[in-house]
Write a structure and sequence with these properties.
MetI-like fold, mainly alpha, 70% helix
């Protein structure tokens, strides 16, 4: 008599279970690596944002501090009152310095981009040298130059020229980027239609490199408007810009809420100029490129 073992049913056979169901049961759920990288990248960006923005937020909160720890908007009345003249001098020096920078940077950038000549890279390195020299060194050099050569220690133009020297590379580089991205065929077409070099530059080239010019103006304005170290060396008697006024007040009386209000106002003006530029032109002409 033969004893037969019972056949396993289809439900109890492992092979009867679908393959994708078994894989779903065996494999643990994992976060996709690309998504994990995105999470880490966003976390790092937010961490850097907090680290850099936290001092500005602390200064903003302190600027509203009143007697007994209360909040006082009256601190900002000093900005338009006793600090108004200092802000006026800062804006005035910035406007004059930007005008000088633009008048020199436009022909210099055009010559460096459009005309081949030996020593071009060396010349550009020399023009960009103020970016790599400490402000104290520039200030001492200008003091010696003004005392023994140009005698500008008592003139507002000494301060204006000092700001123009320090910010000239910031004006030059974005204009060179804009010219580098502009094909020369636009100028050749204008000249073929009878335009002179002068007309082709002002009617064709200059409007097309306008975003680069605006980038240079924005960068130079922020530096000039907030500069105090070079100003400390070369400012004439009776002229005190807003950054220099903040430095003097902090050195003599400490950081008062009214001084913090002036510093916050300067920060808001700088942030507003940057946001306005990004809103209108974007970041194209603030990126690096192969210049020469």
């Amino acid at each position: 008599m033969t004893v037969t073992s019972p056949r396993p049913s289809a439900a109890s056979t492992p092979s009867a279970v679908p393959v994708h169901a078994r894989a779903r049961q065996v494999r643990p759920r994992r976060i996709p690596s690309l998504r994990l990288v995105d999470v880490v990248s966003h976390g790092y960006i937010w961490l850097c944002l907090v680290v850099f923005v936290l001092p500005f937020l602390a200064l903003l909160v302190y600027s509203f501090t009143g007697p007994g720890g209360t909040y006082a908007i009256e601190n900002f009345q000093y900005v338009l009152g006793s600090f108004g003249e200092n802000l006026f001098w800062s804006v005035r020096v910035a406007v004059f310095a930007l005008a000088i920078d633009l008048a020199i940077a436009l022909p210099a950038a055009y010559a460096l981009v459009r005309y081949p000549f030996p020593g071009k890279r060396l010349l550009y390195s020399a023009l960009a040298l103020p970016l790599f020299v400490p402000g104290a060194v520039i200030g001492i050099s200008l003091v010696l130059t003004y005392n023994f050569t140009y005698h500008l220690t008592t003139s507002i133009w000494g301060l204006v020229l000092a700001m123009a020297v320090g910010t000239f590379p910031l004006m030059l580089t974005p204009i060179m980027v804009a010219l580098k991205d502009l094909p020369i065929v636009f100028e050749e077409a204008a000249e073929c239609l009878g335009a002179s070099r002068w007309q082709s530059f002002w009617r064709i080239v200059f409007p097309l490199i306008g975003p680069g010019v605006s980038a240079g103006l924005m960068l130079a304005f922020i530096i000039v408007f907030n500069e105090y170290l070079v100003t400390l060396f070369v400012h004439p008697p009776g002229v005190t810009t807003a950054p220099l006024r903040i430095f003097n007040l902090v050195r003599t009386a400490g950081l008062l809420p009214t001084t913090a209000a002036l510093a916050v106002t300067m920060q808001l003006i700088s942030f507003a100029s940057v946001l306005l530029f990004f809103r209108v032109f974007g970041t194209r002409y603030l990126k690096g490129t192969y210049l020469l």
